[in-house]
Design goal:
- This protein is an alpha+beta fold.
- 11% of the residues lie in helices and 27% in strands.
- It has one domain: Metal Binding Protein, Guanine Nucleotide Exchange Factor, Chain A, CATH 2.170.150.
- The protein has a five-stranded antiparallel β-sheet, with helices on one face.
- Strand 5 and strand 6 form a beta hairpin.
- About 11% of the residues have low confidence.
- This is NAC domain-containing protein.
- Keywords: Activator, DNA-binding, Membrane, Nucleus, Transcription, Transcription regulation, Transmembrane, Transmembrane helix.
- One of its GO terms (molecular function) is transcription cis-regulatory region binding.
- It is a single-pass membrane protein.
């Protein structure tokens, strides 16, 4: 069931923080405790869809060019750490370093100590074609994963959460050099048919690290 913006209270915007995405949404999804308030994020195997097809699968219809999805973990190799991020038209490539997500409430982080690490965020950029000659596009995803042992269900199984958005594409040719991926979890390869200033600036900064 989609949730049109017109049916929501005036002024409503779905702009969860990184900490809220991990603590309130991803953990509940992993534990099977998703309630109605969390069902605004659908479960989709994002790497079986091209990025331009994903916005139409969002449950929230709004003018904000960002979309959220749960996706099952899927490894490229059964006993490996590399994730399968290939689609029919291209692939997602990790860029920059993973960012730490810390708790910001008293339940998981004490004021006397540094807030506990609850998850990690990886930035992925979609490239058309096949590596190493793929062409970078303006489609970007932030991949959120938990780091707490009680929410780790192993290499196969479990979930990650994605924030998808699109920035204006560069006019200059992109490099063909593949980035070395840091540790992260992600899903596997639907057939085709104003982001937050903070997130866009953050993504731009990370993409520039090649």
């Amino acid at each position: 069931m989609t949730v049109p913006l017109q049916s929501l209270p005036l002024g409503f915007r779905f702009h969860p923080t990184d900490e809220e995405l991990v603590n309130h949404y991803l953990k509940r999804k992993i534990n099977g405790r998703i309630k109605s308030e969390a069902e605004v994020i659908p479960e989709i195997d994002v790497c079986k869809c091209e990025p331009w097809d994903l916005p139409g699968k969002s449950l929230i219809r709004s003018d904000d060019p960002e979309w959220f999805f749960f996706a099952p973990k899927d490894r490229k190799y059964a006993n490996g750490h590399r994730s399968n991020r290939a689609t029919e038209k291209g692939y997602w490539k990790a860029t920059g370093k993973d960012r730490i997500i810390r708790a910001k409430n008293a339940a998981t982080g004490s004021k006397k100590h540094k807030p506990a690490v609850i998850g990690m965020k990886k930035t992925l950029v979609f490239h058309r074609g096949r590596a190493p000659r793929g062409v970078r596009t303006g489609w970007i995803m932030h991949e959120y994963r938990t780091t707490e042992p009680e929410f780790d269900s192993g290499e196969q199984g479990g979930y990650v959460l994605y924030r998808l958005f699109k920035k204006e594409e560069d006019k200059t040719p992109s490099s063909n050099v593949e980035d070395v991926e840091t540790t992260g979890l992600s899903p596997s390869p639907c057939k085709s048919s104003p982001v937050d200033a903070q997130h866009e600036a953050e993504a731009t900064e990370e993409i520039s690290i090649h």
